[in-house]
Amino acid sequence: MKRILVATLFAVLAWAQTPPPTPAPAPVAAPDEMSRLRAQLERSQRVLKDWPNLARYHDDNAAIAPPTAGTARVVFMGDSITDNWGRRYGKFFEGKPYINRGISGQTTPQMLIRFRPDVIALKPQVVVILAGTNDIAGNTGVMTLEAIEDNLASMAELAKANNIRVVFASVMPVCDYIRPQTVQRPPEKISALNAWIKDYVAKNSLVYLDYYSAMLDDKQMLRQEITDDGLHPNAAGYEIIAPLAEKAIAAALAK
User: Fold this and answer.
1) Which long-range contacts does 10-17 make (Cβ < 8 Å, 24+ apart)?
2) Looking at the chain, which terminus has fewer C-beta neighbours within 10 angstroms, N or C?
3) CA-CA distance, 3 to 9, in Å (whole number)?
4) Angle at Cα 67 formed by Cα 62 and Cα 71, nearest 5°?
5) CB 74 within 8 A of CB 117
6) DSSP bridge pairs for 75
7) Sign of the four-CA dihedral 174, 179, 183, 185
8) Phi, then psi, of 86 in degrees rounded to 5
9) What digits encode the pLDDT tens for the residues 29-81?
10) What residues contact residue 209 under an 8 Å CB cut-off, 6+ apart?
């Protein structure tokens, strides 16, 4: 028994004197990864400070004079599909008093917040609203169709209260031919939202701009030749929708 106690004591003393294992060094991110993380952090900080991105067009808006008499100014409010128009793909109505106020990635709650400075303050006769695809994709969190519809209705009510005629564009179709798009933007949700928009327009004497039907293929998907990613129109896509927009604007001005 004595021998067992002595052996145990020596074992305890030996364990106590054993230095702890040296921790493995923390992994160091590669320079490219550090740059990516830094850029991501900076973007997140900007979003936190200005969630609706009111700063994007603040200076441009301040530099725009009120429209002269007889000028049919039109503002296009939207997301990246509007933002890209004439900036990345296609031509944006050269020589026309039309103003692009699209911001990539935006959803209807963000657009609703900036509707006054980016639309009403510019005193257009017509606003063309294209929105909803990023809400369906959940860019700013989960959104029900009812919530999207409420935001669209609120924009229309603000416009009408300020004597601005409203054109509502249908949400464009998507396709999976180039990369997966329908998982984030299910076609049945796009169709349901478009059905509501068309009905709302009819009930409120607005103008419906049907981009959706003009861009479908025989499989009820966005035509492959008019997109480079299955979501956004390319130059050929904008050539299709530009005359449709012009026709809708003319109809709004004639009301």
Assistant:
1) none
2) N
3) 10
4) 150
5) no
6) 99, 127
7) negative
8) 85, -10
9) 677 887 788 777 776 677 778 999 999 999 999 999 999 999 999 999 999 99
10) 128, 130, 167, 168, 169, 170, 244, 245, 248
Q: Got the DSSP string for 208-244?
A: EE-HHHHTB-TTSSB-GGGBSSSSSB-HHHHHHHHHH
Q: What's the CA gap between 255 and 251, in Å, rounded?
A: 6
pTM of the predicted protein model: 0.84
* Residues with Cβ within 8 Å of residue 52, at least 6 apart in sequence: 106, 109, 110, 111, 113, 114
Give the distance, in angstroms, between the CA of residue 184 and the centroid of all CA atoms in the same chain.
Answer: 13
Would the CA dihedral through 134, 140, 146, 147 be positive or negative?
negative
pLDDT tens-digit readout, 100-111: 999 999 999 999
100 touches 76 (CB < 8 A) = yes
